[in-house]
Amino acid sequence: MLKQVSRLDYFTLQVFIGLVELKNGSTVAEKLATTQSKVSRALTTLRDVLGDELFIRQKYGFEPNQVALKITPMVQTILQQFDKIIETTLDKREAPYELTFAANEHWSLMVLNCIQQSCRCVDGGVYVNVQPWSETVSQRLCQGKIDCSISIEPVNHPMVNDTKIGDITHFFIVAKTGHPILESSQPLKDIFDYKIALVNSNLQGHQMHRIEEYAQAKDIDIKVVLKSPSVRMVVDHVSMTGDVGILVSAMSYYYFENRKDVDFVDISDDWRNAPELTSDSYYLHCHQSVLSPMVNCLRNLLGDKLVEMQSHYDNITTSTSPAKPLTTCCTNKSCSALQCDADCLQRSCMVANKCGP
Predict the structure, then answer these.
(1) Between β-strands 281-287 and 148-151, what pairing exists: parallel, antiparallel or unpaired?
(2) d(CA 112, CA 91)
């Protein structure tokens, strides 16, 4: 029976619907741009496979019988599914590549920027769905439910490719403007006199922050009042209290760079010189289903963006001239991540993948 059903191909089913609607073999042949003999053979196939006459010949043409009328909706549904398959195949090259990316708050805009630049690597461009980082990201990444993520530790799973983006080289204490910690000669020591707010990005469960490990190793009493994956929340909290926050990476500098209600102390040298403190790195994780050109492009662009943010901070602290604002939305396809912000400071950045005059 299965071999018989396989004879009901797309053309044969089209003939069936044509005869039901038009009731004339020659008219059906004209509509389908074929010959009347092929229509007759298709009708013979339908009758052989289904074991029924299906149509009654009248003077004006063919009249569908009760069996034909009963199966007509089913045949129409099958043809509609065929049409959807054809339509999907035809539109495949033009459809944008959809990428689901999980990232922390301070990486989200940078990820969007870099993915928009990387769309030149994929025909049809890239549609990005940026999701917040959570403790389930690694599991969902291994299962293929998300495509990419950024964290400070390798995933180490056969279905995931881990690539190092770069090292975290900058560390800050952030506090309300005028806070005593900002004038301390030994801020990394005096910080433990205050309640501390921390960004717990990429930390699983009750995993300790690096500063908590440092306090434990030196037997220092630490009073953590807040842990949040949001850099903005930590900065907002210390701006309204006497607590102090510890932020890592130049990627977080964007969130307090131009604020007047908070100030900061750079503790990068103290952090790097403390043997009990560890400096982490950023890793790009991509499921194996992600296209190789996309993975390579993201690796290069995100690495460039990290270097750019680090250079942006270093240039400000070593320059006496006012700092230029850092743009984060350029989608110019022709410039690299390092060139992008500098180029677009001189031009108005447009959304439609180009920079206006």
Answers:
(1) antiparallel
(2) 25
Contact 63, 55 (CB under 8 A): yes
pTM score:
0.63
Interatomic CA distance for residues 146 and 217, integer angstroms: 37
Residue 299 contacts residue 335 (beta carbons within 8 Å): no
Length of the chain measured in residues: 357
Q: How far apart are CA 64 and CA 70, in angstroms?
A: 10
Residues 6+ apart with CB under 8 A from 34: 11
Per-residue pLDDT of the chain (357 residues; tens, 9 = 90+): 555 788 889 999 999 999 999 999 899 999 999 999 999 999 999 999 999 999 998 887 889 999 999 999 999 999 999 888 887 776 555 566 788 999 888 888 788 777 776 556 666 677 788 888 888 888 999 998 999 999 888 999 999 999 999 999 999 999 999 999 999 999 999 999 999 999 987 666 567 899 999 999 999 999 999 998 889 999 999 999 999 999 999 999 989 999 999 999 999 999 999 988 988 999 999 999 888 888 888 888 899 889 999 999 999 888 644 444 444 434 444 444 334 433 433 333 333 333 333
The angle formed by the CA atoms of residues 232, 235 and 241, to the nearest 5 degrees, is 140
Count Cα atoms within 13 angstroms, Cβ side, for 343: 18
Return the DSSP state at 355. Answer: B
Please state, in angstroms and as integers, the Cα–Cα distance from residue 298 to each residue in 60, 118, 174, 292, 305, following that order: 66, 7, 31, 10, 10
Using the structure block, give the residue that is written with the tokens 């129409």. Answer: 76
| Residue-by-residue DSSP string for 251-293 | GGGGGTTT-SSEEEEE-HHHHHH-TT----EEEEEEETTS-HH
The phi and psi torsions of 316 (rounded to 5 degrees) equal: -65, -45
